Amino acid sequence: MHSEPAAVGAAPVVRLRGVVKRYGAKTAVDRLDLTAGPGITAVLGPNGAGKSTTVEICEGYRRPEAGTAEVLGLDPVREAAALRPRIGVMLQSGGVYSGARAEEMLRHLAKLHAHPLDVSALIERLGLGSCGRTPYRRLSGGQQQRLALALAVVGRPELVFLDEPTAGLDPQARRATWELLRELRADGVSALLTTHFMDEAEELADDVAIIDAGRVIAQGTPEELCRGGAENTLRFTGRPGLDLHSLLKALPADSAAAELSPGSYRVSGKVDPQLLATVTSWCAQHGVMPDRLSVERHSLEDVFLELTGKELRG
Amino acid sequence: MSTPTAHGERRESYAPRPGAAPLPRMITAQALLETRMLLRNGEQLLLTVVIPTLVLVLFSAVDIVDTGEGEAVDFLAPGVLALAVMSTAFTGQAIATGFERRYGVLKRLGTSPLPRWALMTAKTLSVLVTELLQVALLTVIALALGWSPHGNPAAVLLLLVLGTAAFSGLGLLMAGTLKAEATLAAANLVFLLLLVGGGVLVPLDKFPDAARAALELLPISALSGGLRAVLQDGAAMPWRELGILAVWSVLGLGAAGRFFRWE
């Protein structure tokens, strides 16, 4: 297995400093700082947070009005000619001649590169074998999505940019996409992806940057973000109507306990072995069997909601 | 190179090995792809092949339009060659490029190793290849209809090249600034208007003097008039028409270069 994480301390693949981009009166990206990779970095954010603009600045499509952008050590606009062969880009939609066949377009992109991947193997790998001769406009949404991914990686890039890579895919195709991204990562390809899906970020990303209103408001590994958020939660069920006052007295001062619905209890605070022992001994004293006792970690979704006050899928 | 997967099979390695293909290979691949897209598109073929052929055959055989003295085909063949150039370099290129812009193809290629100037070179090559096929086909048909061309082949070539440059500039200007649907409508309308008012079918001396003076300055009139001066009347070098086409080329390509938007 080749799955060592990307070397710690290696040079970042993307470095944005104080980047500003406005569209008319609207500020899409507002003094944004982001350092990413190597490895897989997920950019999470609600609709309109500035995710796509951020990625398009890295790809060289947009010129920032202020600040600096560096991708693989190059300026994406001024040094585009040197950068372009080294990156792969997956657009959110389109990008293919409507009359071109799936395989034809992939073979064409391969011809623009010096050492492309084997096209037939890639088509097989992404389950596009059955539609290689179908014109692009007649492919299903999921097939178009997988072709876009293939187009991004066929040139053996060092870094791929993926804008919502699994939007609109069925669960099986999502899994297949994730597996390919893990293989790419294992082989030393870095990725910067935007996503709406928390599970995608949790499953794939070495690093998650949460963007809201054009700024990065939190960044770290999924574990760091979950730990760094609010406290964790302990739940159990028992007989309804327990008097929680005596429990609260036994718990540390910053804890809370509540009966959410009859017989269903939640204790929140710094959940550590000591707190767990306190709760179970309190239960023993009161002759309560704490059924379905569980410790819940904060999910990325909870962290996101706390930070942005927004649901991700809006 | 291969790497074992989680399932134990060997798979191809994705290890980075970036690099652009050599420029000639990229440009050739792009020009071939663009030509294939054009030849596969039914509406494009209608415009570039069927309409010029029909115009040539129909109006040579049936005496509907008064084409002046001599055989109708001697008047029509140069006009139809001009029409063919316009249909490919202007109408066809404008519509195709407009939709490529709309569907994100230009955006997609914008981050590929293919430089923009190389993409434009490939588009021009694809237009020239298509024109070569059109000219060959129309020449054979016209000869079969009894066409007897005269004149200097170099002058004909120069007219075709300058005509292509002028129409490409105008077509790309339209494709790069208007919405795809607007380009589709406008390019077809212009095609139709110039077919009638550009000396392709109807001799310009059928128009009132004032209108004629203005119409003669159109690129299609300069191209059809220039080709006719050489092929029908045996002129050596139609400088006036070449001059008009050169001005249109500079204006069109200059404006396209300045105002073209890739997305």
UniProtKB/TrEMBL annotation, chain A:
It is found in: Cell membrane. GO terms for molecular function: ATP binding. It comes from the Bacteria. Keywords: Antibiotic resistance, ATP-binding, Nucleotide-binding, Transport. SMART domains: AAA (SM00382). It holds the Pfam family ABC_tran. CDD domains: ABC_DR_subfamily_A (cd03230). It is a peripheral membrane protein. InterPro entries: AAA+_ATPase, ABC_transporter-like_ATP-bd, ABC_transporter-like_CS, ABC_transporter_ATP-binding, P-loop_NTPase. Residues 14-238 form the ABC transporter domain. Its main location: membrane. The keyword Glycosyltransferase does not apply. PANTHER family: ABC TRANSPORTER ATP-BINDING PROTEIN. This is ABC transporter ATP-binding protein. It comes from Streptomyces physcomitrii. The lineage of its organism: Bacteria, Bacillati, Actinomycetota, Actinomycetes, Kitasatosporales.
From TrEMBL, chain B:
The keyword Cytoplasm does not apply. The keyword Hydrolase does not apply. Residues 1-21 are annotated as: Disordered. The chain crosses the membrane at residues 45-64, 76-99, 125-148, 154-175, 182-204, 242-260. PROSITE patterns: ABC_TM2. InterPro entries: ABC2_TM (IPR013525), ABC2_TM_bact-type (IPR047817), ABC_2_transport (IPR000412), Nod_factor_ABC_transporter (IPR051784). Coiled coil: none annotated. Residues 39-263 form the ABC transmembrane type-2 domain. It is a multi-pass membrane protein. Keywords: Antibiotic resistance, Cell membrane, Membrane, Transmembrane, Transmembrane helix, Transport. It is found in: Cell membrane; Membrane. It holds the Pfam family ABC2_membrane. PANTHER family: NODULATION PROTEIN J (PTHR43229). Belongs to the ABC-2 integral membrane protein family. This is Transport permease protein.
